[in-house]
Each structure stands twice: as structure tokens, then as C-alpha cells.
Amino acid sequence: MQATDLSSNFFALFDLPVSFDIDLNALAECYRQAQRAVHPDKFANSSEAERRFSVQMAARVNEGYRILKDPLARARHMLEVLGVELDDMDTAFDGAFLMEQMELRERLADVKGSADPHQQLQTIAQNINAFGKTLTGQLAELLLAADVESLQQARVITRKLQFFRRLNEEVDALDDELSEF
Amino acid sequence: MALLQISEPGQTAAPHQRKLAVGIDLGTTNSLVATVRSGTAETLPDTQGAHLLPSVVRYQKDALPQVGKIARQSAVTDPRNTISSVKRFMGRGLADICNGSAAIEYEFADGESAVPRIRTVAGDISPVEISAEILKTLKLRAEESLGDELTAAVITVPAYFDDAQRQSTKDAAHLAGLNVLRLLNEPTAAAVAYGLDKGSEGVHVVYDLGGGTFDISILRLNRGVFEVMSTAGNTALGGDDFDRAIAQWLLEQAGLDQAGLSAGQMRALLIESCRAKEALTDAETVEITLTDIEAGTQIWQGEFSREQLHVLIDPMIRQTLSACRRALRDADIESADIEDVVMVGGSTRTPRVRELIGDFFQCQPRVDIDPDKVVATGAAIQADILVGNKPDNEMLLLDVIPLSLGLETMGGLVEKVINRNTTIPSAKAQDFTTYKDGQTALAVHIVQGERELVSDCRSLARFELRGIPPMTAGAARIRVTFQVDADGLLSVTAREQISGVESTVQVKPSFGLTDNEIETMLRDSIDHAEGDVAARMLREQQVDADRILESVESAIAADGQLLASEEHARIEQAMASLRELRDHGDAQQVKQAVQALNEASTDFAARRMDAGIQSAMTGHKIDEF
Question: What is the pLDDT of residue B257?
Fold first, then answer.
């Protein structure tokens, strides 16, 4: 027995229309309101069943919030809800994107040997963010149009953004390494 | 609108129903207990007026262990039986401990158990049992000064504690006979104590440097909701390490080798080092005289300056700054976004720490609450709310897990399932498949940490999902679900989707005690206390019974309209039977009746949760209906 499963559509869980355009402040407020209702701290003295449901529901609310507040995760979730197949294996990228990726990777590999690794890393991080920003802007437009062709293009862009996200993680890992964390 | 019952601020409507709940700061160096009385949270002193209980336990032959100041006095004369800073060993294996500097101070028993045990005159003792002695002392102190039995406690842990360390802490509380409402992260507790909910919206940093652990947490506050954005730290870095660095320096100055020192001499040297460090908080220099405690002769005399202290401790403070940097990055904020920085933990008394942290965050760190008491105080406020003494309180703490949780995959690599700094509770599922034809079992190895290789992460638990029907490779769909509760504790379920074969583990860390071991220890400790095992078991079940009865009653009162009459009758019947057995049955019978009521009310609980979330999400308050 489980409390109703609303996880398949987090827009529905948060009582929002399926749209990329979200008021983040309203979302945050809605999130806090939801946690006030279901968080385990509100059920510390309750029956075992209520405590169990509370953990499950609070976890779902947290997951929904995490996905909806993050543009990339929100976009992918929206595509999923709209029935766009997210199979990532068959994505073909344009040459310019592949060149960018290769160049960024090479620069990242050279960071440790450079004269000022921290500065170098920061520059790369800024470049990655700039690329990410441009792509997210395009993504927003495509998802607003939301016709079949736009959604397919949006899918390719989310895939590209995932590559940048991974690069970002590598930048962070390298930063930790350089700071000896 | 419902009629409100008017009461004085800080008082509940029915004071006689007030439940006794405490907050406990189980520290490396000192521990404290606090409670909310007449609306204010305060730490409770012992009969001599001391609030801090030194986290030191001395084991004796044929006598109960001594705890606190009296035990600490024997640190030099009876070093092997006098255990201090046991928090460093919680949830750790012998190999971890031997890598640290503690190995030389105690003798560890070689046993078959994964849990390290310290050899004392009273037998081989595990860190969990030692911590339980400290908790028992605090429990007794609270019950004596409050004049009644404790209902429950909130116990604080470093935010950066991993699953094994948290589980061990909870086990220690269980062993001490405490009903744990919640494990609360120390920086979050401090934020609560600072009353940061009162009008101080925005982003706040809590920098917590204790005797043996370091945490940094970044929180966003919004109308009573404390949302932890990120946390970082080091559970093996604290003021103890400052002392050790000073001791090392003194040895070099005196031309001595640590290997030539007895355990007692080493203890004496560390105590002297700590004293020197504390003296430099106010003075520029301090005179140090090293005496051989055994021969009574002077070994070395000299001057120790602030400047020299900084040379010794700056590298350690810089390490904490690396953690601060990462926490800022994970929270995706800049120093300029921060309202203020709150200093917590005894080691933040060191002026150099305040200075470097102030420089880093470009602000004057806040030190207005006693850094030793702030964590226990915050825990007491949270305990008071959780136990139900303040039903209208709007405070809500949303914390995170400090370290990523993952699974071992092919080639010894880690597949992360839940990332660090994910808000808890959290649940995530990952699908796996079989890689051989006819494979009927799958080994699941759960790890915690940030690195890519399993060997660089902490191994939490292993289990096997068996009974998968033979299929071709890649045909099985095995869903592994991780669930982290509000205490930051993990449970894992593996389920083959096609056949429905399922296996669940409450992750019992590799370096934790087994449930059986704890049960045995519990029985032994009750025997020692000359109590009656059956009576205590019954008492525990009665507490459970009262809790569920009260909870179901109030649920019916609030949402009775969600009940079908048949279901309502079934629940009422289960309640009546539990009430009867609660007063006239044995522990086993009460337990079964609690279970029966729980089952009878499960559907109702699910419907209430759904109704609760729906009304919250659609923006309607319950009282609008």
C-alpha cells in the first residue's frame, strides 16, 4: 500500500500547467507549503503508517522541486510528460558542437600543467556557462512553441546541455582536487 | 473559523500534558543536554552547576563506569581505561582508526567482529557502548532536574557524518534507553538556536568547528523554513588536531620522540598543549614547562607564541576554507549573497579561526551565543516542537545528505544514485539488469562518497537479491530503490520487476553493530541496572501504544470525513482492543495490538496524506473548507 503515486508528472503534483515557463518564486513557495503539510517532522508522533507515507510523500515533493527548479531537468521532464522519447543513444550532433566539446576537454586536460590552474579553470567554467546559457535560451523558445519539430530540436538541445553539465562536474572535481578537498 | 484557546505566550494550553523532550549535543570533547522550560531553551547543569559534561568515560573493574569530569581526572593516571573523544571512532573500522593518531592511545582488541573494541579492565568495549554511557548520564541528569521521565530526545550529529556514523549514534541512543525523535545536523541546530527564523530572511552560513569534527552549512531562511542549500566538512578535523600539532611541536623542541612516551605521558602532553592553545586566546605568548609526570623532573621550558600557533594551525584552517569554497559552489552563491556567518563549536574561540573566516567571507562572524551551548539549545527547540508541545509552530527544517550514495557497478566503478546535497527525505530508483544468461542472483554493494572508484568510497553495506527467474542476459528488470529518511539514514530495496522478487535492507553499516549485538547489550545493561527486562519491554510498548492511540484519535478528529463507516468501526475496534491490552496485557500482546491498529488505519493514513498534499498544492488552507 502506497499513498497515491503522482511522480510520473511533477507538474501535476505541483498543480502547474505543463510548461517550461515557471515562476520560480511561486514554485518555491508552493514547495515550502507542501513540505509543511507532509514533512516527517510534522508526523514525529504519528502512527508508523503515517510516518512511512510522510517520508515517501516528502521525498516525492523534494524530487519534484529539484526537477522543476532546474531548467535542464525541467525540460527533459516536460518532454517525457509530452511523450517525446528521450532515448539518448541515437542523438546526432552537429560538427560545431562536437568541436566545442573537444576543445573544452583539451583545455580542461591542460589545466593542471598551466601556470595559474585556478584562473585557467575559472575561465573554462565561464565559457561552459556561456554556452549553457545560450542553449537554455534556445530551449525555452522551442519548448514554448512546442510543435512536433520544435520538441525534437529541444530534445537534441537537452542532450547537448547534458554534455555541458558533465563538463561542469569535471570542472568541480578538478577544483576540489586543486583545493585538496 | 475554529475557536482559539487563549494562552500565555510560551505556555501550552494544558501544561500538565506537556511532554518532556530534550536536545542532546553528543560532542567529541563535551556533551550537553538542553530543554525548553517556560518558553525558553536552556542547557541543564549537573548538581555542581556544570553544564558541560566532558565526553570521557572511565571503565573500572567490578564497578560502574565513571562519566565526565571525574573520569577525565584519570586520563593521565589510567589512560588505557579512560576513553575520551570516542566520537572519532563512531561508525569506523579498525583500519580507519589506525590511520589516525588515536591508535597509540588505546589498546584495541583483535576480534572477529568488524566493530573495533577498546580493551579495558571491564572488558572489550565498542564505541557505541561508550557513547551510550555519556547519553545515559545526560538522560539521568535531565530526568533528575526535570523531575519526570523523558518522552524523547533529539540528538545532534555533525552534518558531514556518513550513514555509518549516524546509525552508530542512533544505536548508542537506543542502548541508552532514549527514544530518538530525530538526528539533527549540528549546524542546523545552531541556526535554530540563533532564532534565525525571526525576521532574518536570506542566506546564512554556519561554521562549526568542534573538538573533532568540522562542518559548514549554508542555509536559506524563508518564513520559518530553514532550507539547507549545501553542506561540507570533515569528520576528522577539529580542535583536537590543533592540540596534536602543538604537542608535536613541543616534542620537537624538547628533542623527544613520541615513541618513547607512555600513554599517560602523551595524555599529559596533549592536556598541556590544549591549555597553551586556550591561553593564547587572550595572551600573545605563553610559558610552557614540560615535566615528566612519572619521574617528577622538568624536561623542557620555553615560550610558545601566537605566531608559532598560527604556523601550526593555519594549514588546518585553510583546509576548512576549501570546504567553505565547495559549499558555496554547491549552493551556487557568492560570498556577497550571505547575510551573516555564525560561529559554532569550542574551537571557534581561537581568534585565528575567527580572523581567517572573517577574511574569507568578508564579514564579522557572529559569536553572540556561547559556541559550546548553541547546538544543544537548538536541538531542544526542535525536540519541543517534534514532541508536539507547540502544535502551531511554523518552523520547518529541510536538511540535505552530505555525501553521495551509490552502487558498485562493473569494473569497481560507482554509479551515483543520490547526489550529495540532495534534500532529505529522498527516494530514487535505478534500473539494472543481469549480464549473464540464467543469472538468478544479483549482488548489491552500497557505497557513500564522491569518488569514481568503489575503493575510494566508504562501503556501507552489501546484500544479494536472490530468486530471480532464469532469463537471458539483459532481460531482467531489477529496480534498486534508495530511500533516505529525515535522519539521513538509508534503506535500500531491490525488486525484480517481472517476477516481483524483492529484497530490502535497512542499511546496517559494515562497521556497525548488528541488531542482535545491540539487543544483547540492551539486556545486559538492564541486568546491571537491576531492572526487570520484561517491565522495561512492556513500558516501551506502552509508550508506542499511547503514541499511536493519540495519533489516530487526532487524525479521526481532524479528517473523520475521509473514513467510510465500516472502516471507522474497524479502527475504533482496534483502538478499543489496544486500550484494553495496554493496561492488562504483556509486551508481546501490546505490540501485536499496536500492529493491528496500524494496519487498520493504513488506508486512512494514505488518504490523509493525499488530501494534505493536494490542499497544500492548490493553495487552499484546510480551514477554508
Answer: 84
Please name the member of A28, A40, A175 whose beta carbon is closest to the beta carbon of B486: A40
Q: Which residues of B are less than 8 Å from A60 in CB distance?
A: 427
What stretch of H or E contains B480?
strand B478-484
Q: Is the CB of B555 inside 8 Å of chain A's CB atoms?
A: yes
- Distance, in angstroms, between A95 CA and closest chain B CA? 30
Contact A44 B610 (CB under 8 A): no
Which CATH superfamily, name and number, covers A10-69?
DnaJ domain (1.10.287.110)
> Given CB atoms, is B504 within the 8 Å cutoff of chain A?
no
Question: Residue A41's closest chain B neighbor by CA?
Answer: B386
What pLDDT shows up at residue B350?
Answer: 94
Res A1: pLDDT: 33
Most confident range (mean pLDDT) of B192-206, B287-301, B473-487 is B473-487
Determine the pLDDT at residue A10: 93
User: Domain B1-194+369-391 - what CATH class?
Assistant: alpha beta
For residue B444, pLDDT over 80 is answered with yes
Tell me how far apart the alpha carbons of residues B5 and B2 are, in angstroms, rounded to a whole number. Answer: 9
| Neighbour tally for B160: CB within 10 Å | 26
- pLDDT recorded at residue B525: 65
Please give the residue that has the higher pLDDT: either B477 or A31: A31
Contact A54, A38 (CB under 8 A): yes
Dist CA B613 CA A35 (whole Å): 8
Domain ranges of chain A: 10-69, 95-179
CATH number of B405-527: 2.60.34.10
Identify any residues that bridge with B25 across adjacent strands, giving them in sequence order. Answer: B32, B156
> ∠ CA A38-B418-A50 to the nearest 5 degrees?
25
Average per-residue pLDDT for chain A: 87
Q: Which of B547, B615, B617 sits opposite A13 (nearest CB)?
A: B617
Contact A179 B181 (CB under 8 A): no
Looking at beta carbons, which residues of chain A come within 8 Å of B551? 45-47, 50
User: What is the number of alpha carbons within 13 Å of residue B21 lying toward its C-beta?
Assistant: 27
Q: Mean pLDDT throughout B16-44?
A: 90
3-state secondary structure of B376: helix
Interface of B with A in 270-329 (CB under 8 A): 319, 322-323, 325-326, 329
Active-site amino acid positions of B: 25, 87, 186, 208
Predicted TM-score (pTM) above 0.90: no
What pLDDT score was predicted for residue B623? 39
- Domain B531-617 sits in CATH at 1.20.1270.10
| Contact status, residue A114 vs residue A120, Cβ threshold 8 Å | yes
B223 near A CB under 8 A: yes
A window 85-114, beta carbon within 8 A of B: none
CATH class of this structure's domain B239-315: alpha beta
Per-residue pLDDT at B341: 94
> Looking at residue A4, what is its pLDDT?
40
Predicted pLDDT at B17: 64
> What pLDDT, on the 0 to 100 scale, is given for residue A181?
65
Q: Cα–chain-centroid distance for residue A55?
A: 23
Domain ranges in chain B? 1-194+369-391, 239-315, 405-527, 531-617
Q: Which CATH class is domain A95-179?
A: mainly alpha
Q: Which pLDDT score, from 0 to 100, does residue B2 have?
A: 40
Query: Which residues of A fall within a CB distance of 8 Å from B486?
Result: 39-41, 55, 58
Q: What is the model's pLDDT at position B508?
A: 62
Q: What is the dihedral of CA A119, A124, A125, A127, to 10 degrees?
A: 130
